Amino acid sequence: MDEKDDRLQEASDFFYHLVCNNEKRLKNGLAERERIRKQIQNGEQASGYRAQWLRKSSTRVIHLLQDIAREFDSIYTTDRFSALDLIDVLSTAKKKIESNLSQEDEED
Length: 108
Prior knowledge:
single chain
């Protein structure tokens, strides 16, 4: 093999490892999500790194939604943002995410 073939093989090995590693990580994530779901279903507070990350992330999302509400209220002075509007924003975002996921599934 020459140097070009060696580099191609290295790149191929790298991407193979990356794909396999991602599959392993995704499976781990699914297992963690299931563990958290069971804890919540049993009336327990979810524990572990993923549950902690979810709590912190949800707090960040809430802060972003507060900023969005303030922006709406300052732009539309004859209207007022409500908690139900926040839920509508989240529902719309969820639908967009699900739509993107279904498009990805169709591509596979």
